[in-house]
Specification:
The structure holds two protein chains of two kinds. Chain A has helices spanning about 1-15, 45-60, 75-85, 100-110, 135-145, 160-180, 195-205, 220-230, 260-270, 300-315, 340-345, and strands at about 30-35, 60-65, 90-95, 115, 125-130, 150-155, 185-190, 210-215, 235, 250-255, 275-280, 285-290, 325, 330. By secondary structure, chain A is α/β, with parallel strands linked by helices. Chain A has two domains: about 1-130, Rossmann fold (3-Layer(aba) Sandwich); about 135-255 and about 290-345, Rossmann fold (3-Layer(aba) Sandwich), CATH 3.40.50.2300. In chain A, strands 2-1-3-4-5-11 form a six-stranded parallel beta sheet, sandwiched between helices. A six-stranded mixed beta sheet of chain A has the order 7-6-8-9-10-12, sandwiched between helices. Chain A has a two-stranded antiparallel ribbon with strand order 13-14. In chain A, helix 2 crosses helix 9, helix 3 packs parallel to helix 4 and helix 5 (about 135-145) packs antiparallel against helix 10 (about 300-315). Chain A is globular. Residues about 1-25 of chain A have low confidence and may be disordered. Chain B has a domain at about 70-300. Chain B has a two-stranded antiparallel ribbon with strand order 1-2. In chain B, helix 9 runs antiparallel to helix 12 (about 250-275). The longest helix of chain B has 27 residues, at about 60-85. Chain B is globular, with a radius of gyration of 22 Å. Classes of the chains: A alpha/beta, B mainly alpha. The interface between A and B is large, with 46 and 54 residues.
Chain lengths: ~350, ~375
C-alpha cells in the first residue's frame, strides 16, 4: 500500500513538474499566501488589493487564488505545495516566516515561479521583494515629533526583526530632529495581527503618557483605542485606515503592491520572469503616504510633504549621518548614508532610544 | 410546560455513545452544507472538497494523503496523553505549552551540539523534548498535590509563559547566527541532518512523530485495559470515592496523568520542530495542544477512537485548506465548520445520557 502511495505521489509530482505546457488560452494562474485574513484592514488587505489589481489588469488572461490565515509553521509548506499542485504559475508568499517553506517548495517545483515578501533567500525560481517602509516612517517621525506635547511617543512593535527596528530608528531620528526632548516608549506585541493584544498595547502606552501612538502591527485596534482615549494621534499602518481620519489617524503608510504584482505577472506571461531582489520605496510608488489631515498644523504638513518629495527623488536618505548607535559608537559619519546591507540586517537601535531589543 | 423533555438514563446508552461521533459528523455535514449554501457555495461540492478530495482527488490526493499523517501525528500523540487525565477527572488544558517546551528544550539540546554529526544527537533530543514537556506539566501537578491549586488554570496560564519563553528563545539564544538578525533558529530539518526528523519512507508522511503516535495508541490501550494504573484512572474518574477506598493514591494519579500527558506533548513538539516545521520560530506553535483537546473528546477518550478522531480532524484541516484554495472559501467558514463538529458532538452526547420524551409527564397523585 505504501509502495503504491509512493509511486502515485512520484507520478503526480513528476507530471506537475513536467512544467507549464500551457495551451494558448490557458489563463496564467497566480496564487497568494496570506498571513492574516483579507479583511484585516492592513497588511494582508493591501496584498489582496494587489491581487485584485492583477485580476483587473489582465481580466480573463489570469486566474488568481489565495489562502488566508496561513500560520508560519509546518502548515505553510503544505499550503504552498497545494497551491503549486493546483497549477499555479506564480506564487506570492507574503510574510517573512514563509521563507524556508517557500524555498523547500520551490525546490520541488522548478517550473513554478515564487516571490517571497521581506525575506533574503533566493533561488533560480524564487525572487524576493519588499518595500522601504522606513522612508514612510521618517515622515511619520517628523509629524509625530511636531505633534507630541507630552514628548512621549508610543510605538507598538510586532517582532524584533530588522524591518521593524529600521522603522523605529527612522521614526525616532526624524522625531528627534524636530523635537530634541522626544522619548520613545516601545511595546512588543509579538504578533502581526491580534486586535485584542494591539488594543492592550495602545492603552498601556497611552496610560504611560504617550499622545502619539505609532504601530507596526496590522489591525485598526490601536486606532480605536486612541479614538476612545481622545487627544491621541495615530498613523495608518500598511493600509490607509482612513475610517479613523481626521483624528486620531492623521496620516498613514500605505503599501501599494499592485504595480509590482502586475509587472511580475506580466513577466511570467511573457516568459521574461527572472529571479530578482526588489526593494522599492516612495519613489517607485511601492510606499505611499496617506493624506495628512487638518489635525496637523499646515506648516508641519508642508514640511512633511517636502520631506516626502526629497526622499522620493533620492535627494535625501532617511539614514544620513551623523548617527550614533545606541551604545554611543559611531554608525554613520557626517553626510554618510546607510548601505542596504546594514539596513537589511539592522539589529541595533540608534542613540537616544531608551529601550532594549528583546532577545 | 413543554412538549419535549429530557429524562436521565440510568446508565449512558453504550450504543449511542459509540454512534454519537458518527452522528455528529453527519450533522456537521448537513448544517455545514446549509452554511456553505448561504455563503453562496455549492454545498455538495464543498463537502466533497473537504472530505473526499484530500483522499482521492488525483491532483491533490497523492500529496494530501501523507499530509494527513503529518497533521494527525501530533494531534494523536497529545490527545492520547490528555485522555488519560480526562478519564481520571484531571484537566490538563495546557498541552500547547508542554508542546512548546518540548520543542524548545529538545531543539535547544540539538542546537547546542551544532554541527555535530553524532547519531546520538537525535535520541538525546527526543529524550530532552519529552523531559521539557514533562517538567512543564509537572508544575501544575505538584502545585495541585501540594497546595490544591486548580490544574486547569495553572496549566493554561503556563501556555502563555511558554509562548513568551519561545519568543525569547527564537529571538535570543537560539537565534540562527547566520540569519541576518531575523528571529528563528537554524533550520533543523534542512540544515542539520543529525538533528532532523525526516520522512522515514519518501512521500508517505511517516516520520518518527507519527510512529510515536501509533506506539502511544497501543501502549495507552494496553495501559487502560490490562494495567493496574489504567484501572485506577478509570475508577478515579467514574467513582472517586470508591477509588479512595480501593487505595488509589490521588497524588500518584495526578503526577502520572499530568506528567505522561506533558511528556507526550513534549515529544510531539520535538518531532514537529525537527521535521515538518524545521525551525524554532516565534509562532512555532499553531494550536495543536488545544485542538488535541477536541480530538480527545471526539475520540471518546479511547485510544483507538483518538486515532480515528485525529485523522478526521486532520482531514477537515487539509480539506478546509483545499476548499479555500479551490473554491475561494473564507478561512473563517472552515473554522466555523470545525466548531460545528465539536458542538454537535457535545449535543449528541446529551442523547447518550438522556432519553428524549415527547408529551407531558404522567401526573401521579
Amino acid at each position: 500500500m505504501k509502495m503504491i502511495t509512493k509511486l502515485l505521489a512520484g507520478a503526480t509530482l513528476g507530471l506537475t513538474m513536467a512544467g507549464p505546457v500551457l495551451a494558448q488560452d490557458d489563463p496564467t494562474k497566480v496564487g497568494f499566501i496570506y498571513i492574516g485574513p483579507v479583511g484585516d484592514g492592513g497588511w494582508t488587505y493591501e496584498h489582496d488589493q494587489g491581487r485584485l489589481a492583477v485580476e483587473e489588469e489582465f481580466g480573463d488572461a489570469v486566474e488568481t487564488v489565495y489562502q488566508e490565515n496561513v500560520p508560519e509553521s509546518a502548515d505553510a509548506e503544505r499550503a504552498i505545495t497545494q497551491m503549486a499542485l493546483s497549477g499555479a504559475d506564480l506564487i506570492f508568499t507574503t510574510s517573512f516566516g514563509y521563507m524556508d517553506p517557500t524555498m523547500a517548495v520551490a525546490e520541488k517545483f522548478p517550473d513554478v515561479k515564487f516571490e517571497h515578501a521581506t525575506g533574503y533567500k533566493r533561488a533560480d525560481n524564487v525572487s524576493t521583494y519588499s518595500a522601504r517602509f522606513y522612508e514612510g516612517r521618517a515622515i511619520q517621525g517628523h509629524i509625530a515629533g511636531n505633534l507630541t506635547e507630552s514628548n512621549i511617543i508610543g510605538y507598538i512593535g510586532s517582532f524584533p526583526i530588522p524591518e521593524v527596528i529600521r522603522g523605529m530608528n527612522a521614526a525616532f531620528l526624524h522625531a528627534k530632529k524636530v523635537n530634541p526632548d522626544v522619548e520613545f516608549k516601545i511595546v512588543w506585541a509579538f504578533t502581526w495581527f491580534d486586535p485584542a493584544k494591539e488594543a492592550d498595547a495602545a492603552k498601556a502606552l497611552i496610560d504611560q503618557g504617550a499622545d502619539v501612538v505609532l504601530q507596526h502591527t496590522d489591525s485598526t485596534a490601536p486606532q480605536a483605542a486612541a479614538q476612545e482615549a481622545g487627544g491621541v494621534y495615530t498613523f495608518g499602518q500598511a493600509s490607509d485606515m482612513s475610517e479613523y481620519a481626521p483624528m486620531p489617524r492623521v496620516s498613514s503608510i500605505i503599501d501599494d503592491w499592485a504595480p509590482y504584482y502586475i509587472a511580475r505577472t506580466q513577466a511570467v506571461m511573457d516568459g521574461t520572469w527572472e529571479s530578482t531582489d526588489t526593494w522599492d520605496g516612495i519613489g517607485p510608488g511601492m510606499v505611499g503616504i496617506g493624506e495628512i489631515t487638518d489635525a496637523v498644523p499646515a506648516d508641519v504638513k508642508e514640511e512633511a510633504l517636502a520631506l516626502k518629495d526629497a526622499i522620493a527623488s533620492g535627494e535625501y536618505h532617511p539614514f544620513t549621518g551623523p548617527i550614533n548607535k545606541q551604545d554611543g559608537s559611531v554608525w554613520l559619519a557626517e553626510g554618510e548614508t546607510a548601505d542596504d546591507g546594514t539596513l537589511l540586517g539592522m539589529d541595533f537601535f540608534v542613540e537616544g532610544i531608551n529601550a532594549e531589543i528583546p532577545n | 410546560m413543554s412538549l419535549f423533555r429530557l429524562e436521565k438514563r440510568p446508565a449512558p446508552s453504550s450504543l449511542l455513545s459509540g454512534l454519537t461521533p458518527i452522528l455528529a459528523v453527519l450533522a456537521t455535514m448537513v448544517a455545514g452544507g446549509v452554511m456553505f449554501a448561504i455563503l453562496g457555495f455549492q454545498p455538495l461540492e464543498a463537502i466533497r472538497t473537504i472530505f473526499w478530495d484530500p483522499l482521492f482527488d488525483p491532483q491533490f490526493g497523492p500529496y494530501s494523503r501523507p499530509q494527513l499523517l503529518v497533521k494527525a501525528g501530533p494531534l494523536i500523540l497529545i490527545a492520547i496523553g490528555l485522555a488519560l487525565g480526562f478519564k481520571a477527572g484531571i484537566w490538563n488544558i495546557g498541552a500547547e505549552g508542554q508542546y512548546i517546551m518540548g520543542a524548545v528544550v529538545g531543539g535547544g539540546v540539538g542546537l547546542a551540539f551544532y554541527p555535530s554529526e553524532s547519531p546520538l544527537i537525535f535520541p538525546l533530543m527526543v529524550f530532552a523534548g519529552a523531559f521539557g514537556g514533562w517538567v512543564w506539566a509537572s508544575i501544575p501537578a505538584v502545585l495541585k498535590t501540594t497546595f490544591g491549586t486548580n490544574e486547569i488554570l495553572v496549566s493554561l496560564m503556563l501556555v502563555y509563559v511558554a509562548e513568551n519563553i519561545l519568543a525569547s528563545m527564537a529571538s535570543g539564544i537560539l537565534r540562527n547566527p547566520d540569519g541576518q538578525g531575523f528571529p528563528g533558529s537554524r533550520n533543523l530539518a534542512r540544515d542539520y541532518p543529525a538533528a532532523s526528523n525526516p520522512e522515514l519512507i519518501a512521500d508517505t508522511g511517516m516520520h518518527w512523530g507519527v510512529v510515536a503516535a501509533f506506539i502511544a495508541v497501543i501502549l495507552a490501550y494496553v495501559l487502560m485495559t490490562r494495567h493496574k494504573m489504567g484501572f485506577a484512572i478509570r475508577l478515579a474518574g467514574e467513582a472517586p470515592r470508591a477509588a479512595r477506598f480501593a487505595g488509589v493514591s490521588p497524588t500518584r494519579l495526578i503526577l502520572f496523568c499530568l506528567g505522561t500527558a506533558g511528556a507526550l506533548a513534549g515529544l510531539a513538539g520535538l518531532f514537529e520542530v525537527t521535521g515538518p516545521a524545521g525551525q524554532i520560530t516565534i509562532d512555532f506553535n499553531s494550536g495543536y495542544g488545544f485542538t488535541a483537546i477536541i480530538v480527545a473528546f471526539l475520540g471518546r477518550l479511547h485510544p483507538v477512537g483518538i486515532l480515528f478522531a485525529g485523522l478526521l480532524m486532520a482531514l477537515t484541516y487539509i480539506g478546509g485548506e483545499l476548499a479555500q484554495l479551490m473554491l475561494g472559501m473564507p478561512a473563517a467558514a472552515i473554522q466555523l465548520f470545525q466548531g460545528m463538529l465539536l458542538f454537535f458532538l457535545l449535543a449528541m452526547d446529551v442523547f447518550a445520557n438522556y432519553r428524549l420524551r415527547i408529551g407531558q409527564p404522567e401526573v401521579t397523585s
